[in-house]
Specification:
Blueprint lengths: L1 E9 L4 H19 L3 E6 L5 E7 L2 H9 L7 H10 E3 L8 E4 L10
Antiparallel strand pairs: 1-3, 1-4, 1-5, 2-3
Helix pairs in contact: 1-3
InterPro entries: ABM_dom, Dimeric_a/b-barrel
GO molecular function: monooxygenase activity
Organism: Sphingomonas montanisoli
Length: about 110
């Protein structure tokens, strides 16, 4: 398994818009590109951090090289409108291969 970690700062008051757009975009990326989905976190200074899981680096790289485009202009526009800042070049802050997985999913 392979993971990519991203972060975003969101315009004040657009947090809910961002979360909805992120969730829909994540679902579409999973359907189109074969990701395993993602978890969204919020750190102490308000930055949103997404941890996306992929079957392998090649699958992630193919999706990343295509900019993970999906055909839902409304969702994409809501996401872009909510985002105030991303890392330079919008690259992930980390990409990593999973060595051992001890997470359990609780819903």
């Amino acid at each position: 398994m392979f993971v990519a970690v991203y972060w975003w700062r969101v315009h004040p008051g657009k947090e809910e818009q961002f979360v909805r757009a992120w969730a829909r975009g994540t679902d579409l990326i999973r359907e189109i590109y074969g990701s395993y989905g993602s978890r969204l976190h919020r750190d102490g200074d308000g930055r949103f951090v997404g941890y996306a899981e992929w079957p392998d680096e090649a699958t992630w790289r193919a999706a990343f090289d295509k900019k993970m485009v999906y055909d839902d202009p409304e969702t994409r526009a809501a996401f872009v409108d909510a985002v105030a800042e991303v890392p330079p070049d919008a690259d992930p802050i980390f990409t990593m291969t999973v060595i051992d997985d001890r997470l359990t999913t609780r819903r």
